[in-house]
Amino acid sequence: MNRTLGVLISGRGSNLQAIIDAIVQGALDACIGVVISNRPEATGLERARRAGIETLCLGHRGYASREDYDRALVGALRARGVGLVCLAGFMRLLSPVFVEAFPNAILNIHPSLLPAFPGLEAQHQAWAHGVKISGATVHLVDRDLDAGPIVAQRAVPVMDDDTADTLSARILEQEHLLYPEAIRLVLSGDWSIEGRRFRLGAGSVAGT
Ligand code: GRF
Hints:
By secondary structure, this protein is an alpha/beta fold. Helices cover 35% and strands 24% of the residues. The strands form two sheets. The chain has a seven-stranded mixed beta sheet with strand order 3-2-1-4-5-6-7.
């Protein structure tokens, strides 16, 4: 499988940093072809520059539609030979134009145990609901929000004295371990999708 990643961010970029660190440490055999942000102030852009990775800021203003913006994104990723797109706190809904350009080759990380608590502020949703276990999920992206086949998850217990913030911080620590691990699994190419189940060692998508 093509090991060039394109990472899409909108803000802090701590998951981006975890991916960069895993590559530098030799724990993840991949390279990041480009980091794209839709917001110029995203501090993740600075993390990428420090690591010598090409960055691109692509604001949505000036595009007539979501589809036009997504076509520009796809063009930028293809121009850099990206084979796997990693959403890392990218705060935009993707249109079918984008999803269909990279079939089963877009990953997202979400701070809950999906399918519980999709959407915004998942950690707060889980805390307010009173669940005793939450966590993080990496999934393939399809047309629906936070809904594609689940690649990997990590559970995080919710403590009685947690606030939404302390819970978020512990989930984030697990996200930083989970995302590089999930990318490694997907890049192995040794998996298949059955129904909506991501199954390791059950086939091969190598060569895609
Ligand atoms: C993370 O909590 C991730 O799960 C969610 O957005 C946040 C991004 O954080 N999708 P960062 O920009 O990677 O620090």
